[in-house]
Specification:
With 239 residues, the chain is of the alpha/beta class. Helix content is 44%, strand content 15%. The chain is built from 7 helices and 8 strands; from the N terminus they run H-H-E-E-H-E-H-E-H-E-H-E-E-H-E.
Amino acid sequence: MTTVRSLLFNILFGAWTAVMFVAGLPTLVLARGATWAMGRLWIRGGVLLLRLTVGLDHRVLGGEQRIAGPAIYAVKHQSAWDTLIFPLLLDRPAYVLKQELVRVPFFGWYMLRLGMIPVDRQGRGAALKQMVRAARAVTATGRPILIFPEGTRVPPGEQRPYHPGIAALYGDLDLPVVPVALNSGLFWGRRSFHKRPGTITLEFLPAIAPGLERRAFMEALKQRLETASGRLVQRADPA
């Protein structure tokens, strides 16, 4: 049954995405707010399809930890679901994403129009400087930054090294960092066809104030993010 439901979701979400991406093309030359409205409608449709076809819902804890205005959200990354949900939870977040994504037809056009921050992962120091410059411009408009510190989806219970990008943003922007834990990988795994019923839990954790030394910041971030994500995995709410 899981296979059938997953197949149905993939077909319907693919069709919904095609319709929305084509129908939304005029928003690329309108005010940016129109593009955001189209994007949020697309995400809401995807979330609804997950609930109706797969039986997969979500809940948000710690919403009061969100910060009005500019901040950095450092998110545990386990699933494609993580890349979808945040425009419904934050005010026009600017994702730090790999440069290859903005070269994808349609999807990349929307990412550029929405002011996301592409990074050349092979660019090393020059890429970090470019990312920080772009992040400064974004936060100057009052928007938050969203980054996945591990840089890729990691299965529940596993850890990868945290990339230097989060430390560069923390050190330069002088903004609080809000860790965001989740357990989405239990239900929609990395490179997995199957989507399983249940309830994904996402939790905003207390912010790390600016001003820490780099090593102390990275240790605090990793400890908070991994501990909370581990707890959510252990207490998962299956259907």
